[in-house]
């Protein structure tokens, strides 16, 4: 079963616009991570947010975490065609060694 | 890419045949993982390893076995492949045992006819 569920499943935007996707999860977590996957490639780690953090930035990426609502959002600002990819959230339930991935959001950035 | 390679990258096989996929890392990380990725299911954990000869099951382990005789190699075996095991298989390593940030290999596309 999936711990994280992304919303929307697919997103189409114009270059320069912002893209926002959400992740909801069911159980308590230690951390939440976002990954990107380009077509036909492996996943690439983007950003990690700890359960005691509320917001984190990395370049054009902004991640928020609301543990009371068991949800996270990933914002990509000023999107580029190269941001076209699938984005996955993954939750770590405890300090340990397993992550549970959601089903992903497919983002298409049109030039 | 954290020095992770997978072999083969593509394989087509017949139902009932054994198949072994190899994951190789060059940086001596302790934790290694095998996932499968299917449309509509995201990534699902098959097996993982926390050291040489130390392995454990993930959520979709039925029909799969693993072995880790050396730190750098993690093998995934389908004892008798079935069409339901047609998938893309990803290996990953963890660089942080506490938060478990993972780095992924390029994947193996397996087709079972």
Which helices and strands, and how do they pair?
The complex is a heterodimer of chains A (111) and B (113).
Chain A: E1 5-7, E2 10-14, E3 19-24, E4 31-37, E5 43-50, E6 55-58, E7 61-66, E8 71-76, E9 85-92, E10 100-101, E11 105-110
Parallel strand pairs in A: 2-11
Antiparallel strand pairs in A: 1-3, 3-8, 4-5, 4-9, 6-7, 7-8, 9-10, 9-11
Chain B: E1 4-7, E2 10-13, E3 19-25, E4 31-38, E5 42-51, E6 54-57, E7 64-70, E8 73-78, E9 87-94, E10 102-104, E11 108-112
Parallel strand pairs in B: 2-11
Antiparallel strand pairs in B: 1-3, 3-8, 4-5, 4-9, 5-6, 7-8, 9-10, 9-11
* Computed CA radius of gyration of chain B, to the nearest angstrom: 13 Å
| Percent range of helical residues of chain B | under 10%
Biggest interface pair, counts:
A-B, 26 and 28 residues
pLDDT averaged residue by residue of chain B: 93
Low-confidence regions of chain B:
none
Proportion in β-strands of chain A: over 45%
Shape annotation of chain B: globular
Cα end-to-end separation of chain A: 36 Å
Please count the helical segments of chain A: 0
How does the helix and strand content of chain B classify structurally?
Answer: mainly beta
Residue-averaged pLDDT of chain A: 92
Structural class of chain A: mainly beta
What letter string, H or E per element, gives the SSE order of chain B? EEEEEEEEEEE
What is the succession of H and E elements of chain A? Answer: EEEEEEEEEEE
Main sheet overview of chain A: 6 strands, mixed
């Amino acid at each position: 079963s999936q711990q994280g569920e992304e919303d929307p499943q697919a997103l189409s935007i114009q270059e320069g616009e912002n893209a926002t996707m959400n992740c909801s999860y069911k159980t308590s977590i230690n951390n939440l991570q976002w990954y990107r996957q380009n077509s036909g490639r492996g996943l690439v780690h983007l950003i990690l947010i700890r359960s005691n953090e509320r917001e984190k930035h990395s370049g054009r990426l902004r991640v928020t975490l609301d543990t009371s609502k068991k949800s996270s959002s990933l914002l990509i600002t000023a999107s580029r065609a190269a941001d076209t990819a699938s984005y996955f959230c993954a939750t770590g339930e405890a300090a340990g060694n397993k992550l549970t991935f959601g089903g992903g959001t497919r983002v298409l950035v049109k030039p | 890419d954290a020095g992770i390679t997978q072999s083969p990258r593509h394989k087509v096989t017949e139902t009932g045949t054994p198949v072994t996929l190899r994951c190789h890392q060059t940086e001596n990380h302790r934790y290694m993982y095998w996932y499968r990725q299917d449309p509509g299911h995201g990534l699902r954990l098959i097996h993982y390893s926390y050291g040489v000869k130390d392995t454990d099951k993930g959520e979709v382990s039925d029909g799969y076995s693993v072995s880790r005789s050396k730190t750098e190699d993690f093998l995934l075996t389908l004892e008798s492949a079935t069409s339901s095991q047609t998938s893309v298989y990803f290996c990953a390593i963890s660089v942080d045992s506490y938060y478990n940030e993972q780095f992924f290999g390029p994947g193996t596309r397996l087709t079972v006819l």
